[in-house]
Amino acid sequence: MSDTLVLMEGIEKSFPGVHALSQARFELLSGEVHALVGENGAGKSTLMKILAGIYSKDAGHITFKNRPDVHISSPRAAQNLGISMIHQELNLMPHLTVAQNIFIGREPRRRWNFMVDDKKTNSMALDYLQMLHLELDPRIKVSELTVAKQQMVEIAKALSFNSDVLIMDEPTAALTDTEIDELFGIIRSLRQKGVGIVYISHRLEELKKIADRITVMRDGNYVNTVSAATAPIDQIISMMVGRTIYEAAPELPEANTQPIVLEVKNLNRGRLIKDVNFHLKQGEIVGFAGLMGAGRTEVARAIFGADPVDSGEIYVEGKRVHIHHPCDAVRHGIGYLSEDRKRYGLTLSMDVETNVVLASFRNFLGALGIVKRDKTRIVAQNAVEMLSIRTPSVQQKARNLSGGNQQKIVIAKWLTADTKILIFDEPTRGIDVGAKSEIYKLLNELARQGKGIIMISSELPEILRMSHRVIVMCEGRISGELNIADATQEKIMYFATQRANGGSARADVAAAD
Amino acid sequence: MEKSLPIPKNFSLSLLRSETARRLLAFGALIILIIAFSLLSENFLRFNNVIGIFIATAVNGVLALGVTFVIITGGIDLSIGTVMTFSAVMTGMFIAKWDMPIAVGVMGGILTGTLAGFTNGVLISWMRVPPFVATLGMMYVAKGLSLILSELRPIYFYDTPLFREIAMGNHFNIFGQSFDITYRGYDIPNAIWILFAAAIVGSFLLSKTILGRYTFALGSNAEATRLSGVKVNIWKTAVYTVCGTFAGLGGVLMASRLNSAQPALGQGYELDAIAAVVIGGTALTGGEGTILGTIIGAFVMSVLANGLRILSVPQEWQIVVTGAILVVVVYIDIVRRRQ
Ligand SMILES: Nc1ncnc2c1ncn2[C@@H]1O[C@H](COP(=O)(O)OP(=O)(O)OP(=O)(O)O)[C@@H](O)[C@H]1O
Ligand SMILES: [Mg+2]
Questions:
Q1: Cα B23 to ligand 2 centre (Å)
Q2: From 1.10.10, 1.10.1760, 1.10.3470, 2.40.160, which CATH number describes the B44-338 domain?
Q3: Does ipTM top 0.85?
């Protein structure tokens, strides 16, 4: 039998207004992959941050390698014990290079311990990158990488600690399938070496592939620990949400003879967008599929006026519009839910209410431009209820919400703004199963109300389930279009890999700054 | 070959965007100013005038070097101007009032700056006072202390003629041995060498040492740096301490150049230094910046001041032009980066 590496018992943690953990429990053996699941805000990240020395617990005991009641006071203390964590949010320094990021805080030193040895840093970093089969120059700045690549850098960083306990908080949320396979390979080899791995994910299908045991949390409480091999997914879901959720059968898309709400012609932007043409009808959900870096986000941002384009025409309801700035887009009834909610979607230091009404303030202005607080409050409260956002009140700062709940606020924001066209960029990334089906229901409902919806998603089942029509992109071009009736995962993947020049070029174009 | 590195279509544009370009921009501004002034006035390129420009750059340059570190962390130090004065006054107290050796006075002056910077650092990192507020407070405190210690009067170094040689002499006196530094019979004052030595030290600290690494890391993402197990408070304090030390050195140079410590001087110098840093391409948002850029920025400032004076532009208008150029340079930088 393998030994117990970590035992956390009776862990309590409160934040102002939130009882985040009560009597939480977690056990990790050496050489096991232990999945931690639960709804958004269940306390998964909080529990693991306590183990990684980022938060201090209010009460409870942590036994580490048979040492009772260890006190983990700081991230450094955790590292010294052999515990490292990959965070749910990217935690990189964009201005530093890949190698400098990996070894931050542990730079190889020269002379008087005061000079950094960049050569050595780079060559050591290269070792870890190669371990991940990552073709990446350790000397380039992290800001020049795509989100997926940045995530891989985080993983390389965590590996470089050679820890006995490795915590991964939703590591695959931004990764492509091949990258996920790569990651799983690494996880398996680490498991072989006796490392204990905590794996937090909302992609329950993944767990069957990689996890040995699964611990379920709900509302900050420990629910149960089950074996991944034998427990059916339904059972795990019902433990998570405390009820059996009704998985609506995929709604059959209706035949669509509605007028066109959005038409894009000859959109170009450098290497990122190449001659993109498509249209969107009222009440239609068009799924944008493709590999990471195919240019889907770039198209969305271009339509929304977030990036300048080289050329192209955009028509809203048949009228040519000129969108140079997001506020032009909002005025023409276009809403965009960005994939990187922290950077583009939320003002973290403001409260939930302000965030929800931010894009639609002008609907709440009274005389002299005074904001009608009572109205915004009601609207925000309704949104919180509708999307079951877990927050003590609408006055809570967005920063203090769990990752998934922050995502829901962005959605609430654009639902509140009166839009005709909604662009959802990875709407369910990092969102739990219950909320996911809520969001699906919502998308269908919005389409039924006559809104045109563009849904960018890297999860093919989601694309297939939700779209009326699928547009596939590759290297900035539209490489294929499929009616939902003809669409299959295989066909989509075929178009997604239709590279212009014989398939040797790299898929990932560095994200535009 | 398809496997080779993709060269962007508009290669020249991407070159313009690169980091070297940011320095080139300030450098370009400097060259343009020099050409313009030398065409407009034949006196501009006279040896004595050039030396004058260099000497004028020395103090502002040394201050700017220090505050470059702070600005790269995303912070600000408003106290360096009056801390410089306070250091000068302390040097004066040591040498002229308490009759200590010159070396003690110089060290005392520099360490005064170090101590002020350290205090800033502790206030900012451990006591969480915002940098703007903490250093604004220090600005007033240092100013007040300078006035109190000097009893509102300048302190002169008449009894120690050697002190003036630190900045204005043209030979080093090391361990009793004297080295003359002349170039083709021209005298080049020490202040200029000291500026370049300080720049080399600063550049070394910033690009080669652990301190420099964490300076950038803090400005880029302080929270991520903390979560990586870096003792953020210690390094932040170190950065402000370095900045204060440079201000101390600036104070000694200033006192030596004027052969006196002027307690009423100093306020406003911090803004000149910050302007030099910004012209040099360091972003106030933190995470990027270079020493070379700062030095070039400092020269832009002093060339501008000198050239306008030679052309007998009234002082008031000099200030207006300086402000306008600062904004224009930064604006061009922003436009280029957005593209
Ligand atoms: N720093 C904080 N201040 C206040 N409340 C917090 C803070 N961090 C977390 N919380 C609250 O604690 C609860 C648990 O959050 P946690 O981030 O652990 O959830 P999670 O299970 O990781 O959810 P998700 O799947 O969405 O990431 C949430 O209600 C959240 O709002
Ligand atoms: Mg979480």
A1: 42
A2: 1.10.3470
A3: no
